[in-house]
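yo

u said u wanted the structure for the complex thing, so here. seqs first:
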Amino acid sequence: MVTTKNATLTASIDEVMMNVLNAFNEYKKILPEQKANFLETIANEIEALGDALINQACEETNLPATRLTGERARTTMQLRMFAAMVKEGSWVEASIDTAIPDRKPTPKPDLRKMLFPLGPVIVFGASNFPFAYSTAGGDTASALAAGCSVVVKAHPAHAKTSQMVYEAIKTAIEKCNMPANVFQHVHDEGFKTGKDLVQHPATAAVGFTGSLSGGKALYDYANERKNPIPVFSEMGSINPIIFFPDTLEKNNEALVKMYSGSVTLGMGQFCTNPGLMLAIESDALNIFLKNLSEEVSKFTPSKMLHEGIQKAYVEKMQKALSQKGVDVIKNIFHQSNGVAYPKIAFTSGETFLQNPTLHEEVFGPYSLMVKCKDINELKRVWMSVRGQLTTSLMGTDKDFNEYKNIIEEAKTIAGRIIFNHPPTGVEVCPSMMHGGPYPATTDSRFTAVGINSVKRWVRPVCFQNCPEYLLPEELKNNNPKKIWRLVNNHFTNGDVA
Amino acid sequence: MVTTKNATLTASIDEVMMNVLNAFNEYKKILPEQKANFLETIANEIEALGDALINQACEETNLPATRLTGERARTTMQLRMFAAMVKEGSWVEASIDTAIPDRKPTPKPDLRKMLFPLGPVIVFGASNFPFAYSTAGGDTASALAAGCSVVVKAHPAHAKTSQMVYEAIKTAIEKCNMPANVFQHVHDEGFKTGKDLVQHPATAAVGFTGSLSGGKALYDYANERKNPIPVFSEMGSINPIIFFPDTLEKNNEALVKMYSGSVTLGMGQFCTNPGLMLAIESDALNIFLKNLSEEVSKFTPSKMLHEGIQKAYVEKMQKALSQKGVDVIKNIFHQSNGVAYPKIAFTSGETFLQNPTLHEEVFGPYSLMVKCKDINELKRVWMSVRGQLTTSLMGTDKDFNEYKNIIEEAKTIAGRIIFNHPPTGVEVCPSMMHGGPYPATTDSRFTAVGINSVKRWVRPVCFQNCPEYLLPEELKNNNPKKIWRLVNNHFTNGDVA
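structre next:
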């Protein structure tokens, strides 16, 4: 219930926020089954847009139709996954401790706790996922599942695609009889819009996917507020991959194939693009590097998401290549005929450790191999870039037995440790962790992918000695939906005896 | 592995932090059973200090021995509760999704995730809980349970008590063969010490209990860092209590007794002290207010925790009483013979809404009744102070039926909603939520009391396609400890088939 208007805010943002706050106050009371139906209907309405949506996204993003079709399927799958989660119901983490009235010296009260939605959530969609991390993407789906209302700031690089998805959501709102303003769509009005949205008194939390500078700015805006709010920014990552000696000896060819596929996938436009390789100097490493450079040079490039991204890629890549001590084996074009080319560079451990420019993300199909003198230098290089979404360990059992401590150290680097696989391909499932120590994300305790991403938009509320008839369904003694609850410190899906 | 020293840090803090970081790297590998034994041994060693500890605390805090004996029991109970949690093991939230190698179009990888400790935690103890929220209090116990090493900055108001507890922990470290520096103790060296501790590169998280200005300062220091870290500040709260009309009519006498006991308990030196009462004008309200003022005036006061707190109480109380439109029924002493007196004041809804000074916490046995014209004004008053640890609803079934929306609104105010009971008395159990919207705490998503407080010091790490022999015990297929895990989206305490 925000009653004061902040005079520095533009009138239209204030109107949007008051609408979405009023809608929240209705939406949060809606029953799980209705919320699940709403999420499923959004999925259906997006599918009903058919080829027109894919064509529009192709036009705006340069991404191929096959990729976009797959991404749309992931998007609707996510919506249905959250619908199933809401229907099942255990996600609210219900916890019940029953009273002990005759306890000495004081009676034990009855305490019951579960998760409730925070309030209106602002979502800043990603340029590189026009469906799965944009208008009806993971952040929106998880926030609506939590019971929050949502304002999406449309990404200017695919504003028309975003508008189409918004229309689909509007149809779903009408069909399901949801509060009309539970989802709001704001087109880019420049830099100030984002700040105004984050700093509006009605805003309760923020989700962002993009650059470190953008994500950090929103985080700072949120902390400047009279009441700071959580900001979940998923920012840059170079996803270091270690190639251990034995696997380089034994699996050289397979590694070249796997790695070249990963670094060039989708023109490298993924937060999980592998930007950094680490290995100890050896003949096998030289062969790997030569063959990888050769393999990558055969790749037929396509246009990147938009001109700005392609320009930034070429500039950052050139800057990295121009650093002292950085070299390439096969010097193909940087760009030609309007497309940019992938690039494999290499340098020494010493050079890398001394030059922070080489630690920066080059968003695109670029990867730097750091040839280290020994395992100690390799570890120093690895530790110098910690704060990553992922780190991959390519090794045989012999390697892992030789470098036993590596997993303990990997846990300090990243949110996900991958064995013998590149980081691209983020499985959507409960055990996924898509998030990592700063600056990979602003809050390493939460994932942006999978059902647990809903935990970003909720907080626990405890009811003490609440009459049974006033309790939320999830906290009543009877548990007809058989949700899992912690009752007197034991997990059970039964009733309270 | 922090290798760069920040030149602005004092040498001694840097030494402490490097020691506690090195200790963390050992401690985090220690088995659950050993960690549990360590926590239990701390509890035993604190008890072994016997009366000497109680006497020291009495001397430093002016709190009576009975209260301190009870608080010590709570402290050792908390340590044993976390020991039990660690031994049982389900707290790591293990989640397993097994592979589907033949899934089309791409194979599903094997993903397994659980919680791991963040790193060294800085704890700033509370002045008002020399045991339970100080050196070996809830923050320390939960951080050690999580696998974090801990630095406590001793509260200057009870530095000797803190030192004795530190010695007990040191003995436990030796007896249990823990890393020598897993727990460090820093005496106050002024304002800068706290800042240096929070901003040291090795620090991973911060726990604080105290004033809004102190908690906000630490929060801001943490956000100024190159890599921001979580700060859990538990700050002021005035814990509004609504007295509904029917209960005032029917239970006037009982309410007076209950409320007078709560507002004077421990000289009002609790974060859950009830500082604000709300009711609709009526004859019953006038009787309640008169009788409450009378009852409270009979209270025999004692010295507050220390002179500074007593001085602040009298000053803030006088400031509140001097505001236009604020009055008292029974004007007893503010202070006399070195002790301060409890005070019940009253004002109108209109006055309260217009004067922010009246919204501030007066730390001590003070409570303000806001006499509202009607339910709408009452709700406006209530909403104007949101961001509270607790809010209490005193009402009969008739009241709750008449004011049906009240619970929905209570959820936006506080972390805990209490029915027909004042907020003092914080039960330590899994369903407790001790935390609330800003400024009650800096992060409303976490509790500072109960086993879930461990969640402040951990983050999830996911293992993808990890060979079974490299997995942590909690994520292996076999589950001999029968911990509860989410396996392929179903809760089970069995093995992975």
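Residues 241-419 of chain B form a domain with the Aldehyde Dehydrogenase; Chain A, domain 2 fold (CATH 3.40.309.10). Chain B has two domains: 11-235+444-459, 241-419.
cya
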